[in-house]
From TrEMBL:
Family: Belongs to the GMC oxidoreductase family.
GO terms for MF: flavin adenine dinucleotide binding; oxidoreductase activity, acting on CH-OH group of donors
Annotated S-S bridges: 410-465
UniProt keyword annotation of Signal present: yes
Domain Glucose-methanol-choline oxidoreductase N-terminal: 239-253
Chain positions recorded as FAD binding sites: 87, 200, 473-474, 502, 513-514
Organism: Arabidopsis thaliana x Arabidopsis arenosa
Full protein name: FAD/NAD(P)-binding domain superfamily
InterPro entries with a match to the protein in the record: FAD/NAD-bd_sf, GMC_Oxidoreductase-Related, GMC_OxRdtase, GMC_OxRdtase_N, GMC_OxRtase_C
Length: 538
C-alpha cells in the first residue's frame, strides 16, 4: 500500500481496478493470484486511525465530513442526506457492520452459480465476519419482534429467511471493525500495487479500454495502462455513484448530457448509464430508555413477509462538535440541490437539536433506534453530472416512495415497529405512559432530512413515511446488469472494461448488501481468472 505521490508517471498492469472499496478489495485480492493488479483508491487507509473504526466511534466517523474524511456528504435532490465512502475498504469502513447473505431467489435471478456463490461467501466470512454477542437491549428487541408476529425464531444465521434472526457482524467481540481492506491479506503481495489518495479522472479508450488517468494528493497526474489489451482489463469498482460518474467522465453515457458538460470525445452514446439509481428508504423511531442500554449496532433483524426489514441499534455516542460540523456541511451543500427547504426553518431545528446536547463534548444516547428498510425498492431515479470534477458529487434523484408498493411496505413496517414497541418483551426499554405514536411524532420535529412536514403526518402513516424518509445507505444502480453491463459485468459495446460493484444491482440483496458486494468481488475475480486461463489455452 503506497501513497499515489510515489507512483511513476506511467506503469503497466494486467488489471487496473478503480476503487479499493467493498467489492474492489475482494476482486483485487483474487485477481492478484494469477495476474498483476493495480488498485487506485481515492481515499486513505483505514489502518491510519484504527480507533475511528471501533464500534463506539461509528456515528462520529460517519458524520465527520471534513475534506478528505472517510465519509463524503451528499444530499440527493429528494432532500435526504447521504454519504459516499472515501477510504480503502469503502463502505465497509463506515457502515453499520451487519452481515447477512442474499436469499436464494436473488442468486437465481442474478444467474450466479449457487456453489460458487456459497464458496465466495465463505471466503469472506473466514476473514472478517463474527457472531455478535447479544446482550439485553438487542435481546428485548428480538423477543419484541417475535411477539409482534415476526416468527419463527431462526437463531443465529447468515441466511435470508422469513422470521426473526441474529445475523453476522464485521465487528469482533471487542468492538473492533474488520473491513474489506482485510481481504487484501489474501492477495499475492508480489503481484498487487495499491495506491491511496489516487483520484481517477477518466479511462482513456482506443477500441478497448487501455489507459487510466489519476491524480495524486499533490495534484500531479499519472497514467497506468494495460500490459496486453487482448486479455487484460480496466475494472470499475468505484461504487454506485463513482462508477456511473466515471463512465460518463470517460465519454460513455447519454450523448446529449455529456456534450452539455463538454465531455470529449464521446466514446459511446449509452443512455442507461446513471439510470435505475435506487436507495432503499429507511424510516426510524428513537426510543429513549428508562434503563441503561448497551452499545449495539445491528444484530437482530425481522425479515417480514411483506418485504420490509426491521433492524435496531442502541447506546450510540456522538460528539457535539462533529454533529455541529455535519450540519454546517448540510447548510453549505444545500445550495447545490434544487430542493426547496427553507434554510431558516432548518437552521432553527438544528439549533434546537444541538441545544438538547447541552454542549457536552460527547453525548451517549440512552435508548435505541429502530428502523424499517423497504426491500427493492420499486421506485427508481437517476444520476447526472454536475460538473467534470470526479471529486465532486454528481446530482442524484432517488424518487423515494414514488411507487405505491414501497409506501405500503413502509406502513406495514411501521405498524410492526409499533407492535414491537408495545410488546411485553420490550416494555422495560420504553418509558411507561409514552405511546408509540408519540415517539413517531417526535421524529417530525427533528432535522433528519430536508423535506417538508405535513400536518397529516401526525396521524397518517403514509404521509409520515414520505416526510421522515432517510437513507439506509444501501443505494445501488447506475450501471445495471442487462442495461449497462452484461451478465459477465462487461460494459456493453466496449471491450476490456467491466463494472463490478453495487452499481450493477437491480435491487438491494438480502436485508443488507455488503455480504453480497464482497461475495460478488470474489465470485467475479474467480470467473475472470477462469476466462483468462481459457483464453491462454486457446
Ligand atoms: C453509513 C452506511 C451504513 C451501512 N450499513 C450497512 C450494514 O450494516 N450492512 C451492510 O450490509 N451494508 C451496509 N451499508 C452498505 C454497504 O456498505 C455498501 O452497499 C457497500 O459498501 C457498497 O460497496 P461498493 O463496492 O459498491 O462501493 P464502495 O464500498 O463505496 O467502494 C467504492 C470505492 O471507490 C472509491 N472511488 C470512488 N470514486 C473514485 C475515483 N474517482 N477514483 C478512485 N477511487 C474512487 C471510493 O473511495 C470507495 O472506496 C452501509 C453503507 C453506509 C455508507
Amino acid at each position: 500500500m503506497k501513497d499515489a505521490t510515489l507512483a511513476p508517471k506511467n506503469a503497466s498492469f494486467d488489471y487496473i481496478i478503480i476503487g479499493g472499496g467493498t467489492a474492489g478489495c475482494a476482486l483485487a485480492a483474487t485477481l492478484s493470484q494469477n495476474a498483476s493488479v493495480l488498485v487506485l483508491e481515492r481515499g486513505g487507509s483505514p489502518y491510519e486511525n484504527p480507533t475511528a473504526t471501533d464500534m463506539g466511534n461509528s456515528v462520529n466517523t460517519l458524520l465527520n465530513n471534513t475534506p478528505n474524511s472517510w465519509s463524503q456528504l451528499f444530499i440527493s435532490e429528494d432532500g435526504v442526506y447521504n454519504t459516499r465512502p472515501r477510504v480503502l475498504g469503502g463502505g465497509s469502513v463506515i457502515n453499520g457492520g451487519f452481515y447477512s447473505r442474499a436469499g436464494n431467489d436473488y442468486v437465481e435471478e442474478a444467474e450466479w452459480e449457487m456453489e460458487e456463490v456459497e464458496a465466495a461467501y465463505e471466503w469472506v466470512e473466514k476473514k472478517l465476519v463474527f457472531e455478535p454477542q447479544v446482550i439485553e437491549w438487542q435481546k428485548a428487541f428480538k423477543d419484541g419482534l417475535l411477539e409482534a408476529g415476526e416468527s419463527p425464531d431462526n437463531g443465529f444465521t447468515y441466511d435470508h429467511i422469513y422470521g426473526t434472526k441474529i445475523g453476522g457482524t464485521i465487528f469482533d467481540r471487542a468492538g473492533h471493525r474488520h473491513t474489506a481492506a482485510n481481504l487484501l491479506e489474501y492477495a499475492n503481495p508480489n503481484r498487487i500495487v495499491v495506491y491511496l489518495h489516487a483520484s481517477v479522472h477518466k479511462v482513456l479508450f482506443t477500441t478497448e479500454a487501455y489507459e487510466v488517468l489519476f491524480e495524486d494528493a499533490n495534484g500531479v497526474f499519472h497514467k497506468a495502462n494495460l500490459a496486453n489489451k487482448a486479455t487484460n482489463e480496466v475494472i470499475l469498482s468505484a461504487g454506485a455513484l463513482g462508477s456511473p460518474q466515471l463512465l460518463m467522465l470517460s465519454g460513455v453515457g447519454p450523448a446529449v448530457h455529456l456534450e452539455a458538460h463538454g465531455v470529449n470525445p464521446l466514446v459511446l452514446d449509452q443512455p442507461m448509464v446513471g439510470q435505475g439509481m435506487a436507495d432503499n428508504p429507511m424510516n426510524f423511531v428513537a426510543i429513549p430508555s428508562p434503563q441503561p442500554v448497551e452499545l449495539s449496532l445491528i444484530q437482530a433483524v425481522g425479515i417480514t413477509k411483506f418485504d420490509s426489514y426491521i433492524e435496531g441499534l442502541s447506546g450510540l455516542s456522538l460528539s457535539f462538535d462533529i454533529t455541529r460540523r455535519f450540519f454546517d456541511g448540510v447548510l453549505n451543500l444545500l445550495n447545490e440541490t434544487s430542493h426547496t427547504t427553507s434554510r431558516k426553518i432548518l437552521t432553527q431545528s438544528i439549533a434546537v437539536l444541538l441545544k438538547s446536547f447541552d454542549v457536552k463534548l460527547e453525548v451517549r444516547m440512552n435508548g435505541g433506534l429502530i428502523f424499517q428498510k423497504v426491500d427493492g425498492p420499486a421506485s427508481k431515479g437517476h444520476m447526472k453530472l454536475r460538473n467534470t470534477n470526479p471529486r465532486d458529487n454528481p446530482s442524484v434523484t432517488f424518487n423515494y416512495y414514488q411507487e405505491p408498493e414501497d409506501l405500503n411496505k413502509c406502513v406495514k413496517g411501521l405498524n410492526t415497529i409499533i407492535r414491537m414497541i408495545n410488546s411485553k418483551a420490550f416494555s422495560k426499554y420504553k418509558y411507561p405512559g409514552v405511546t408509540a405514536r408519540e415517539l413517531l411524532n417526535l421524529m417530525l420535529a427533528l432535522p433528519i432530512n430536508l423535506r417538508p412536514r405535513h400536518v397529516t403526518s401526525a396521524f397518517n402513516l403514509k404521509q409520515f413515511c414520505i416526510d421522515t424518509v432517510t437513507s439506509v445507505w444501501h443505494y445501488h444502480g447506475g450501471c445495471q446488469v442487462g442495461k449497462v453491463v452484461d451478465k459477465n459485468y462487461k460494459v456493453l459495446g466496449i471491450d476490456g472494461l467491466r463494472v463490478i460493484d453495487g452499481s450493477t444491482f437491480l435491487k438491494s440483496p438480502g436485508t443488507n448488501p455488503q455480504a453480497t458486494v464482497m461475495m460478488l468481488g470474489r465470485y467475479m475475480g474467480q470467473e475472470i481468472i477462469r476466462q483468462r486461463a481459457a483464453f491462454h489455452e486457446k
